[in-house]
Amino acid sequence: MLLMFLARLPMTAMGVTMTLYVVNDLGRGYGAAGLIGAATTLGSAFGAPLVGRYVDRYGLRPVVAICGLASSAFWISAPHLPYQVLLAVALPAGVLSVPAGTLARLVLTALVPLEQRRAAYSLDTILVEASFMIGPSAGIMAITQLPAVYALTGIGVCFAISATLIYRMNPPIRAEADAEVVTGERPSVRSWLTGRLVMAMFISAGALFCLVGMELAALATLRASGDIAWSGLLITFMCVASVLGGAIHGAVRRSLSQGTLMVLLAVLTLPVGLIDHPWWLLAIVLFPSNVLCAPTLAASTETVSAAAPARVRGEAMGLLDAASRIGLAVGSPIIGFVIDHSSPGWGFAASALGALAIASVGLFWRRSRTPAPVPALTSS
């Protein structure tokens, strides 16, 4: 878990670092920087299921070696490339990014007994929150205090080190009990991608849509009220609330389902826009919804790991990663559009309603794919 935490740090730092590099060093606008970020995100979303499938087929080491080399090469060469070339290679670099999230879930599923996986997934989600507290701040410090070539190359070196450590450690990705299951022929996608799994993907996408929209609306609210200087403290407070929720979710013997947690997350986000100042009151009303952040993400992993067959668990976890990243990628521009054309308060409402709409699509899909029960025959 510590190894995967270290592997995630450069991933959480690369977005803001690349944005500041494109704006400050290449002299481009935030729109140009956003294109590179969008290309990388879409690439990782499309590539996650494919990379997970190759992990299922060939094991951890070959995939980590290829992805580690690709990620390191991209970031080490980035400060030496013109913008047009950088934009062109951003998509394939995203496809071949190190799948730290997928690998972390696979390793935990292999190493942790079934009855303790909720606690393990919750702890993993807590470490993800911790990486988002450290990574972006470290990236901002590096790109603003050091020459850009050092900052970007440093991210590439971090990818190389983490990939090398994962390769050498070679943690198991399947439990010993699954050894016989995975030797057979690979099942077709239609046989295991059930309505339950598809609904779990949509719920996960909806949760990330809500979370990224909530963060964007919170920052816009602080800016509108003149409290933008408190944004760092507010984001930290939101992360601490999520960590607390993850600890509670992992400690209880029985928790709420993924769908219930996501609905509660959205419902508690809906009225936040009624409060716009002062910043500390906004932090208080954001606390309940953020407590549900880590539990919802952990429950998503738990649902997918339980529903996916061991032979294709890597691909299923990759699909979960893809759904999460699509929710992030779609949420930012939609909520930004709502805020630009209304007010920050409506950004919270749009985040909640959008999340519920996305989850509803998953529910509709599951019901449409579930065969109707056949009535029992009665003797006359």
TrEMBL record:
The chain crosses the membrane at residues 5-23, 29-51, 58-77, 83-108, 120-143, 149-167, 197-222, 228-248, 255-273, 279-298, 319-339, 345-365. GO terms for molecular function: transmembrane transporter activity. Pfam families: MFS_1 (PF07690). Keywords: Membrane, Transmembrane, Transmembrane helix. PANTHER family: MAJOR FACILITATOR SUPERFAMILY (MFS) PROFILE DOMAIN-CONTAINING PROTEIN (PTHR23542:SF1), PTHR23542. This is MFS transporter. It comes from Amycolatopsis azurea DSM 43854. The lineage of its organism: Bacteria, Bacillati, Actinomycetota, Actinomycetes, Pseudonocardiales.
